[in-house]
Amino acid sequence: MERPLTGRIKPDGEPLSIKEYRKGGGYEGLRKAVKEMTPSQVLEEVKASSLRGRGGAGFPTGLKWSVTPADDGTGGHRYFISNSDEMEPGAFKDRILMEGNPHQLIEGMIIGSYATGADRAYVFLRWEYGESARRLRRAVSEAYEAGFAGKHILGSDFSVDLYLHVSAGRYICGEETALLNALEGKRAIPRSKPPFPQVAGLWGRPTIVNNAETLSNVSHIIRNGAEWYRGLSRCRDGGTKMYGVSGRVKKPGAWELPMGITIRELFEEYAGGMGDGFRFKGMLPGGGSTDFLVEEHLETMMDFDSMQKAGSRLGTGTMVILDDKTCPVGMVANLERFFARESCGWCTPCREGLPWVAEIVKAIEDGSGREDDLTLLEEQTKLLGPGRTFCAHAPGAMEPLQSALKYFRADFETHIREGRCPYKAQ
To answer: Going by DSSP bridges, is the β-strand pair 253-258/240-246 parallel, antiparallel, or unpaired?
Structure first.
């Protein structure tokens, strides 16, 4: 099984130097793009690869790049950004890639800049990722020294400057327009769309924002071709994917596997199944903002379309396991408190609704819930659902709640009826 993203990461976790990266074919994708392909050909190759965004939304990467308008001839800057503000509960896949092979991300950004006409590229990094920042700074410096970044890359007319921006760190910065506001030094709140960032993004100029894992795939696609990349996958989505498992399993961790692996394979073969003394109760398949799935879904493929048909989302692909000795009400209460605290406060339903929801769920968890609370919560999952708020933050917060009310309703009712958390007696 080929593992283009992680196959060359050292067992001790130390980053690849540029010399080590180039020994394995590093920067050959950039050389091929700049020397043998036009920007349009690079874009079409990425389109043909069926690469979809790995940050959660799953938007086709080549299609996203293709809607960037042609150069308007004004001489203004165009931007390319890696969203490296990884903050989804349960996710740590981007950190593995950035710390283990930072040049892979840098090369993907430079190729993406070439394809979209960008002359400024930023890594927007979560501030807690201090080690990632140190390694990325070193990689950027090495790329400049080798002539892969800066002016007239590889002797061509193509130039791009790279910058590392360490953010103040808020969950909302995962939303690309809130990220742009933060990068401009403004309050991190989402913008109205349209216009979309591809047309009017950073400082009003055309801008592409992609997740760090997404961009780590690009150099391999260009070097080996779209057909090779599609062949790595078991489904219509191209390539491999960083999957993760956390919770009370025998071997929690993260692995690069073919896109479309089943939940059961990931959970049992790679994470080793449940730890001794624990039984499987449910799971969040793609981080804290995805719907719970249960045992009947274990054969579901971990790809964008299959997960949607099952009633959830692939999200980050980093699943969180719920065991039979952990209170599902308490788990949801913890998630809702997190999302309430991370609301940017821009729109009223999210700012006022999420703290109220968190308060109700916490009351149920503490044994002071009322019978009509479940009706109230069900109403809120609709009032804070898609189309009711300014961005996807509150709808994402409703996903674990609405699915918990569906699959673990008896646990909520027991809390209310007995006026206590039955799991705390175990």
So the answer is: antiparallel
Q: Is the pTM of this model over 0.85?
A: yes
Q: How far apart are CA 238 and CA 226, in angstroms?
A: 9
Identify which of 112, 140, 143 has the alpha carbon closest to the alpha carbon of residue 206.
112
pLDDT (tens digit, 0 to 9) for every residue of the chain, 426 residues total? 899 999 999 999 899 999 999 999 999 999 999 999 999 999 999 999 999 999 878 899 999 999 998 877 777 899 999 999 998 888 899 999 999 999 999 999 999 999 999 999 999 999 999 999 999 999 999 999 999 999 999 999 999 999 999 988 789 999 999 999 999 999 999 999 999 999 999 999 999 999 999 999 999 999 999 999 999 999 999 999 999 999 999 999 999 999 999 999 999 999 999 999 999 999 999 999 999 999 999 999 999 999 999 999 999 999 999 999 999 999 999 999 999 999 999 999 999 999 999 999 999 999 999 999 999 999 999 999 999 999 999 999 999 999 999 999 999 999 999 999 999 865
